[in-house]
Design a protein that fits this description.
By secondary structure, this protein is an alpha/beta fold. It has eight helices and ten strands. It binds adenosine-5'-diphosphate and magnesium ion. It comes from Parasedimentitalea denitrificans.
């Protein structure tokens, strides 16, 4: 558990800031005035029950979904509002999802280097560096099917981090994994993320995951962020009865 000062108390320009994001589907606001600030080196967990609008928020930040209103800033620079939009591939955002499959026909090393710019040697060197950090360098010339689910997940993480994204968006990245493996991979992922100069927004419906990984938790319900703060504070000072119920529900 992390009891670092809350992001809002810091004065530096956030790596990622979203202001007043709104998105309707069929006349219903599924993202309803969501604002967040995340510093480089910080992990914020967007935590809430299924259907509360977490993935839609993430998809808007990634640029694959459009907001009805609101703005997104990276390092203080506007990248998206209703009139102006930097395309997804130019946002320097890394993505990781539960079913973010590796390319089966590419070697593990080529999977990690996929999409990198530069010489063949430079790309190989970056793949080696990241695979060493997830302790899978020995598989660099192997293929995804030779790896376990947990190992494939670590390769996917290495691949997302290879281009040095300014922001990492992770949508329930561990939910496909065996319970037995999950804690270890969560811890390993966290330490790797902390070594990179990136701001992390991690979506989860599991309080335990948010408590384990977050510097800050943004508790979401019905499209709104209902409470935000350090994990310890959110857990110990729940905003209402629904928050108590959500945290005590073991899923
Ligand atoms: P979460 O990730 O928290 O489970 P989502 O962001 O996926 O929630 O979905 C929030 C709500 O928006 C849900 O009710 C979902 O059915 C609805 N929704 C999401 N995407 C679409 C879409 N493309 N068209 C219509 N409704 C959608
Ligand atoms: Mg979702």
């Amino acid at each position: 558990m992390n009891t670092a000062p809350e992001v809002s108390a810091m004065q530096t320009t956030p790596r990622l800031e979203i202001r007043n994001l709104v998105r309707h589907f069929n006349g219903r606001a599924v993202v309803d005035d969501v604002s967040l600030r995340i510093q480089a080196g910080q992990v914020t967990c967007l935590l809430g029950p299924s259907g509360c609008g977490k993935s839609t928020t993430l998809r808007i930040i990634a640029g694959v979904e459009m907001q009805d209103s609101g703005e997104i800033y990276v390092d203080g620079k506007l990248i998206c509002d209703t009139d102006y939009r930097v395309p997804p591939e130019r946002r320097e955002i890394g993505l990781m999802f539960q079913d973010f499959a590796l390319f089966p026909h590419l070697s593990v090393g080529d999977n990690v280097a996929f999409g990198l710019k530069g010489t063949k040697e430079a790309k190989r060197a970056r793949a080696e560096e990241l695979l060493a950090r997830v302790d899978l360098l020995r598989f660099i010339d192997g293929f995804p099917h030779q790896l376990s689910g947990g190992e494939q997940q670590r390769v996917a993480l290495a691949r997302s981090l290879a281009p040095r994204p300014r922001i990492m968006l992770m949508d329930e990245p561990f939910s496909g994994l065996d319970n037995r493996l999950r804690d270890g991979i969560r811890d390993e992922t966290l330490s790797l993320l902390k070594e990179e100069d990136t701001a992390v927004l991690l979506v989860t419906h599991e309080p335990e995951e948010a408590m384990r990984m977050a510097d800050e938790i943004a508790l979401m319900r019905g499209g709104k962020i209902v409470q935000q703060g350090a994990p310890y504070n959110v857990y110990n000072r729940p905003v209402d009865h629904a928050a108590v119920a959500f945290f005590s529900d073991t899923n």
